[in-house]
TrEMBL record:
Its EC number is 6.3.4.18. GO terms for molecular function: 5-(carboxyamino)imidazole ribonucleotide synthase activity; ATP binding; metal ion binding; phosphoribosylaminoimidazole carboxylase activity. It is an enzyme of class 6 (ligase). It comes from Nitrosopumilus ureiphilus. Coiled coil: none annotated. It comes from the Archaea. Belongs to the PurK/PurT family. Pfam families: ATP-grasp, PurK_C, RS_preATP-grasp-like. The lineage of its organism: Archaea, Nitrososphaerota, Nitrososphaeria, Nitrosopumilales, Nitrosopumilaceae. Pathway: Purine metabolism; IMP biosynthesis via de novo pathway; 5-amino-1-(5-phospho-D-ribosyl)imidazole-4-carboxylate from 5-amino-1-(5-phospho-D-ribosyl)imidazole (N5-CAIR route): step 1/2. It catalyses: 5-amino-1-(5-phospho-beta-D-ribosyl)imidazole + hydrogencarbonate + ATP = 5-carboxyamino-1-(5-phospho-D-ribosyl)imidazole + ADP + phosphate + 2 H(+). ATP binds at residues 104, 144, 187, 210, 264-265. This is N5-carboxyaminoimidazole ribonucleotide synthase. Residues 108-294 form the ATP-grasp domain.
Amino acid sequence: MAKILGIIGGGQLGMMITEAAKKMPEHISKIIVLDPTENCPASQVGAEQIVADFKDKNAIIDLANKSDIITYEIESGDSTVLKSVEKNADVNPSPETLRIIQDKFLQKSFLKENNIPVPEFIKIDAMEDLVNGLQDFGYPALLKARRDAYDGRGNFKINSEKDIEKAFDYFKGQKLLLEKFMQFKMEVSVIASRNTKGQIKTYPLVENIHEENILRETIAPARVSQEVTKKAEHIAEKTMQVLRGAGIFGIEMFVTQDDDVVINEIAPRVHNSGHHTLQSSKTSQFEQHLRAILGLDLGDTELIHPTIMYNILGDVSFEGKYSPVNISDENVFLKMYGKEISKPLRKLGHFNLVAKQGETIDQLLKKLETLKEKVIV
Ligand code: ATP
Ligand code: MG
Ligand code: MG
């Protein structure tokens, strides 16, 4: 029988999950999202909405009572509350996995214990730990909030002794970790999935270009050697073997100057670097996520067309209503998220630039330069 799907978070990820769910009426009869912003992106495409804070316990219980199956587009949900509602609805990925992943220190410790490579890191509880850590790692180093960070907003780069106090004050009261700064060659990611029956499938390795800590472009496939691809895919597989729970996991990695691969972080949800799959693959990551949590066979993950995904971000010096974006090009697939207000570097939409028969990534990159100008908001 078709199920009622509850999603915590109704932003662009919840929106694209909703759109995928609506194409599976035989499996999903209704979608309800929990989101604090009225008329959130997911509600604009047909999800019913409970307007409440993500951490509102009663609202989560309400969502669980109304749903057969719960998932989330954000990793800041309360894992204890989610665990407690498992008697009312299936929760995927599992609250236990969420608990580990949503704390960057627990996550990195978990990976390290399982012999999966990560940058050097230590827990910071006091200024003394920070001073000692910096002595060990040297400069620059990254001080990170352990929880609730996204788009790099929980990172502070410490370039020299001068920054120590500023960095520590910036995070007043938050739990922290310090990481060695990686002079990486490239950032890459694997979108991996596991269904409730244990079947695992991963999408091909992609390359991610960040600016100011925020994802700007994803190039599928990544421009790396076969050896690096193998290493990254091996790390992704190993990670999936130790992490429990069904759904999509976005595994972000760094390729070092020596062509080693280490994990930066894992997202227990559909991931921005998987948006290219909307056009580049037979199964989008959003459909795959639903297939995974519903216990359906996972779909094909092969990359059919090389594709570049470009994020449309709010101008750094503007907040307010923005002008509509239009591109007409048969190889460009524009997706705006229905957000009324632009804020500095806010994710407002993206487009996928798909290669025509025989077109190379270099040719796509050239074309991208002219397209970028059309999406300045
Ligand atoms: P997301 O939006 O991906 O959840 P986030 O706020 O959780 O982001 P991170 O992924 O930890 O933040 O970091 C954001 C970016 O900062 C990374 O993609 C990378 O470009 C850079 N970065 C993070 N950690 C390191 C590191 N140890 N060394 C060098 N650069 C780093
Ligand atoms: Mg993150
Ligand atoms: Mg990240």
